[in-house]
Amino acid sequence: MKRTCLILLSSAITAGIILAADTKEEPLGLIMSPGGAKLLRAGAETALDARAGDLLFSGDGVRTASGPASFLYCPAKSIQTLGPSGEVRLEAKEPKIKTGKITEQKPVQSCFLPPSVRLAVASQQHYGVSMTRGVDTPEVPPVPAAKLPADVAQLLIPVDQALAVDPKDTSALTARAAILETHNLPSNALIEYQKLRALLPDAIWVQSKIFELQQAVALAQQAASTAASSGGNTYAVLIGVSKYKNPELSLQFAERDASVFDKLLLSPRGGAIPADNILLLTDEKATTAAVRNAFQNFLKRKAGKADSVILMIAGHGTVEAPGSKRGFILTYDSDPQDLNTTALPMAELQSLFEEQVSKVGRVILYVDVCKSGTIGTIKNTSINGDVQHLGEVEGDLFGLMASRPRELSLEGPQFGGGHGLFSYFVLKGLEGDADANKDGKVDVSELIKYVTDQVGSASENKQHPREFGTYDNAMKLSDGTKPGIEISQFPVLYDSRNGEPLLLASNAPQDAGTPQAARAVAEFQAALKAGHLLPEDRGSAFAALDRLKTMLTHERFVEQENELRVALEDRAQDVLLHYLTGDEVPQTEDDFSTGAKYMEAARRLTPESLYLAGHEDFFQGRALLFEKKFAEAAALLESAVRIDPTAGYAYNALGIAYLEQAMFDKAIPAFRDAAHRAQHWSYPLHNLALAYMESGNYQGAIRAYQDAMRLTPQFSYLPYNLGFVLQRIGRKKEAETSYRKALALSPNSPEPYNAIGVLEASEGRFADAERHYREALARDPKFLAARHNLAVLLATRPDRVAEAIRLWRENLAQDPEYQSSRLSLARTLEQTGNAASAIEEYRRILQNKPDYAAARIALANLLAKDGRTSDAIQQLQEVLKRGPGNLELYERLGDLQKSAGSVDEARVSYESAMKYAADSASRARLKKKLAR
């Protein structure tokens, strides 16, 4: 069987994985006074509210409205003011004025801005000091001013002069922080950035700098505290995913590769690594949160300079789009619609490895990466070629890759009862089969030759392993003189329910210490299993964790704490995964509010995390949309975008905030940005189509739905909504075809039946329409729209009006606020001569919607027919008080007033009506009434 991209990384992982690091750029400017302006980011269509402290890079812009905005522009060493109704784009030579003009330029003595990442990746700013080995609060004192290097002191002179005049001069404080940071004085720079954070609370880049510098200071402290340590430990993280949350991604033997590798490492031949030093994550345990936490925990917190780390990943890996260089490892809960949000980015691993590998010892890397056939709608993507770049890393690195670029990596039951071809022969080789010189040891050169020969032969020359890195060929990898394992000892177990391989997941048990501690750990684990994760939950895991602080060693306590971290992030990720399905199964306010609570709780454990802060802002903002608190929601969702400008989900939610307010000119760019950042996600295309439709761009809406359906042809809500667009523009036959496609995808959904019924009713196909309305109600007896439409249909037949009235009353019994049914009921009662009941229904409508002019006018007409002229006059006057008048309204009021004997009042009404009379016939008629 061809394995759709098995990754098997066994390593003390080294500097980059696949992508080049996010490069830092020199900013050109800084927003000083936004004045209500908009920030225009290069590469994004969405205009965000400009905030004091926003960095401006080449290509970024500022757009003013009714007031001016000022910004620091370093190439000219000046603070420039853009006048109202202006737009400027920053370039290296000079600002490019598109509209308006620069009204003022104020020189500054010096201008330094720190090199920064243009598009920060929030997941790379998640675990900071909380994951630094042996450090709770980093405390490396700053270098005293008198001992600063001479070149630094010289650069600081004009900056300090400016600060002496104004200690809150943000441009000068920024310059001071930048100078200290770029001259490798992290403790000094950290102090300045903390001052800036107080002055510029919305500047996300300042928070990012604090995250980075706190970590740098902590790592320096860690290095000093562990310099004398003898070390020599080996740690391992083993990850194997055969069964994914999305069944379409499932493999056969990836889990077994990891599990047998675990057995080898535990054996004396594989190094007799202590069980406590190995973390095995398989299938549902290998979530993105768990894998991310494991990498950080083992590379950043556990391993030191004399230690080795073994990392193995067996599962899918892919590049999001050909040429994008955005590689990902797919964890158990990854969704191909948005890998950036749900998978583990290779760029994130690269950043971690570049930061940490120099601080660990030997690196051994086994990489089994194949070209994927199809992952979701991602086709013909490969990360094999990129993996070879790992060989460019400085340090002692041995890497062995399963295949060449563009080759497929095989797996099957014929390889040791079920393995990936490459991993099987790696395991066999380390077990001793690679010991060519029979000295009892397997070294690097022996393993390379053995695996290369065996894989090539077994694959009939279709798969060719490749080595890379800088390493010693004589480096020993296993000791064949000591007991090992026999791969055949681990047969494949089969699930009796479906006959498929039974894939297990396990973690090594840990000694909790005293009986009291063991009980406390058991209580904590029980709380995790029961899902009592929030601090306010009864029997909360937080309460149990607090009790463990004084019972466990720091190492044991952090392990338990990490389990709670992962559990909280997994729960929030479930909300996001649901969100990716769009309107297929709509979410509720409670879903998003709960997601926010999980993130808030997670931040108690990892307070430095910008990643968690961004997710919390997203969940809170999305929840507020249900309460129609649009301004508050938009502010939070903009914050989520600022924290992670690569997050398509945040842009999509921001677009929804605009769409709910009919701000289509703002919603459309936000949805386009979301779709650009998650190119395989259909939901923003659905929302884009809605915005296009509401703004009258029906062809754009149709194209957006067609694109969305290509991405997720399994979602019924997409053809359903496409049918609605087609129906609106009169393409009824195509609309019905689209509705029927939705019906085929979701035969138990009532909405397509109702929509088809509406089409059939409009074409006079009474029997067909009735049948489809009843089909809808059979699937959902509480479906108000279908019952209402059925009643409207029946009311067209005199012999079935009573049945229609009964159906409308059923709707209103279920939901008294369902105004469509109440209005239809009132009109039908009026038409059938039941004036008293009709009047009662109109009054109920007006209780809920007092500004509903049509209902009030209908009530007035009924009252007039019933001889209650004064009441009718009162209703028409109420209409005029609540909204603008028109010819018919004033004329009708005048007629009623005249019939009641109020001649003077009638004259005033007729004169008001005359103002709206546009044709000669109306004017003649009114003049005649005025003359009487």
What key attributes describe this structure?
932 residues, Rossmann fold, five-stranded antiparallel β-sheet, Serine Threonine Protein Phosphatase 5, Tetratricopeptide repeat, 50% helix, alpha+beta, disordered N terminus
Would you kindly provide a written description of the structure presented here, covering whatever features stand out?
This protein has 932 residues and is of the alpha+beta class. Among the domains are: 2-19 and 232-489, Rossmann fold, CATH 3.40.50; 27-112, no CATH class; 850-931, Serine Threonine Protein Phosphatase 5, Tetratricopeptide repeat (Alpha Horseshoe). It is 50% helix and 11% strand. The protein contains 34 helices and 28 strands. The strands form nine sheets. The chain has a five-stranded antiparallel sheet with strand order 6-3-8-9-12, with no helix packed on it. The chain is globular.
